[in-house]
Amino acid sequence: MGTFVITLREGFEAALIVGLILAYLAGYKWGVTPIAGYCDMINPSAAAECGGPVQWAYHLILPWLTFALLYAALYVRMIRANVMETMHEDYVRTARAKGAPESRVMRSHILRNSMLPVVTILGMDIGLALGGAIFTERVFNLPGLGLQVLVSYENFDLPVIMGVVLFATLCIIVMNLIVDVLYAVIDPRIRLT
User: Fold this and answer.
1) Which domains does the chain have, with CATH numbers?
2) Residue 193 DSSP one-character state
3) Which of 22, 36, 51, 190 is the most buried (most CB within 10 A)?
4) Cα 188 from chain centroid (whole Å)
5) How far is the C-alpha of 171 from the C-alpha of 175, rounded, in Å?
6) How far apart are CA 147 and CA 157, in angstroms?
7) Per-residue confidence at 5, pLDDT binned at 50, 70, 90?
């Protein structure tokens, strides 16, 4: 339990720092994006003066960047390590010795075999991503499941919390199903029958 609390605290601190730096630079200093707020994509309110898919995406640029930057370093490091390890395998040297073009060796032999651990971790990280969305929503004042969970927790609203946990569980199950199907696409030795 202690490790989970430390991880949540570190996730909040990272989201807070990255989000505030991006909001200061891109929103306040350069004026490129809005600092906070939300525009509804489907049902814009008359008082909000913003809505539609373009305004919705424009207001979510900073949260998306914050969320992506929190996970980008981990995945880049993992992909690099897997590619470096796979480059020295016997089947890669054999493909090069047979005269296969370097682009085909990279695509068919190296990347395809080094993506299996990345897909596995991606499937397992969906729960962490949903937890990280809570902090990103809090930093940018976005209405979402994270804000709803926090409000429900403060009001002791157990049915709402149970609904969000059920939805998150369903997302994790669907993501694991997608990962299992991707295994068959990436690795030809695995077949789903």
Assistant:
1) 2-186 (1.10.3720)
2) -
3) 22
4) 27
5) 6
6) 13
7) very low
Q: Tell me: the pLDDT tens digits for 31-74?
A: 888 887 778 787 776 665 777 788 888 888 888 888 888 778 78
CA distances for 126 relative to 96, 101, 142, angstroms: 37, 36, 20
Angle (deg, nearest 10), helices 112-124 and 126-140: 60
Rg (CA), the chain: 21
Sign of CA dihedral 66, 68, 74, 80: negative
Give the span between the Cα atoms of 116 and 118, in whole angstroms: 5
Residue 139 near residue 15 (C-beta atoms within 8 A): yes
Query: What is the model's pLDDT at position 166?
Result: 92
Token output for 152: 């429900």
Helices (H), the chain: 2-22, 53-59, 61-86, 90-97, 102-104, 112-124, 126-140, 145-154, 158-186
**d(Cα 130, Cα 21) in Å, to the nearest integer?**
22
**What does the alpha-carbon distance between residue 21 and residue 179 come to, in Å, rounded to a whole number?**
34
Mean pLDDT of the chain: 82
- In a 10 Å sphere around its CB, with 0-12 CB exposed, 13-18 middle and 19+ buried, how is residue 179 labelled? middle
Torsion sign over Cα 50, 54, 56, 59: negative
